[in-house]
Amino acid sequence: MRPLFTTVKAAAVAAALFLAPALGAGEARAQGHDVINLPDTKFTFDGPFGTFDRASAQRGFQIYKEVCSSCHSMRQLSYRHLTGIGLNAAQIAALASQFQVQDGPNDNGEMFERPARAADHFRRPFANDAAARAANNGALPPDLSVIVKAREGGADYIHALLTGYEEPPPGVTVAEGMNYNKYFPGHQIAMAAPLNTDGQVEFADGTNGTIDQMATDVTTFLSWAAEPELEQRRAMGVRMVIFLSILGGLAYAVKRKLWADLH
């Protein structure tokens, strides 16, 4: 009986995880005494049956590559993982070869650089955290591999942050080297607006690169990067819910059959 019990228990846990609600878009985020209301951004991957828009994720990767990768690493991703957003092996090999990565030591005991391969991790913009801080006035740009999962509000917060830069309200003084962002806790952030001009990134598919569109696309890519198995997990959740429904129906039918003569 234990294997069956274990299977049913695992199915119940999977169904619970599948059905558990995340922080809703637009819900208030408390930051001390400051309450920030996030905009209700609509993503294709929202909800229990949502899926990633591959075209949007590919545009998002382009934004990361052209804008974000100069400061932010994604250490947990390898180039080969980009098959998950629809790139094929030839595209990934060509993309990876554009970057130089350190390897070695060679036969002489020396480190050397070579073109990246599909199996290599994304190239880091800085050799180490100290170099990153030195290049960014002491601030350490966070790694973006799981940034969507690491921030309360998830994708809605990332999108809001990217579109929330504006002039400070009257009477608000922004410290030197800081920027005003209405969705950032405390509203003062060291990172300047990375997406600041419509058409900043020119997309090959002809999509109009407004700031909001670019923010949506890069958030889609970062959401996929943080949880690339999301669609498979949701599909498993659907199967588990169906399995539990059938199992519950069978159990009820057996119970009715066994106890029918005692009424």
From TrEMBL:
<dbReference type="InterPro" id="IPR021157">
    <property type="entry name" value="Cyt_c1_TM_anchor_C"/>
</dbReference>
<keyword id="KW-1133">Transmembrane helix</keyword>
<protein>
    <recommendedName>
        <fullName>Cytochrome c1</fullName>
    </recommendedName>
</protein>
<keyword id="KW-0349">Heme</keyword>
<feature type="domain" description="Cytochrome c">
    <location>
        <begin position="55"/>
        <end position="188"/>
    </location>
</feature>
<dbReference type="InterPro" id="IPR036909">
    <property type="entry name" value="Cyt_c-like_dom_sf"/>
</dbReference>
<keyword id="KW-0249">Electron transport</keyword>
<keyword id="KW-0732">Signal</keyword>
<dbReference type="InterPro" id="IPR002326">
    <property type="entry name" value="Cyt_c1"/>
</dbReference>
<keyword id="KW-0472">Membrane</keyword>
<keyword id="KW-0479">Metal-binding</keyword>
<keyword id="KW-0812">Transmembrane</keyword>
<dbReference type="InterPro" id="IPR009056">
    <property type="entry name" value="Cyt_c-like_dom"/>
</dbReference>
<dbReference type="Pfam" id="PF02167">
    <property type="entry name" value="Cytochrom_C1"/>
</dbReference>
<comment type="similarity">
    <text>Belongs to the cytochrome c family.</text>
</comment>
<keyword id="KW-0679">Respiratory chain</keyword>
<keyword id="KW-0813">Transport</keyword>
<keyword id="KW-0408">Iron</keyword>
<feature type="transmembrane region" description="Helical">
    <location>
        <begin position="236"/>
        <end position="254"/>
    </location>
</feature>
<feature type="signal peptide">
    <location>
        <begin position="1"/>
        <end position="25"/>
    </location>
</feature>
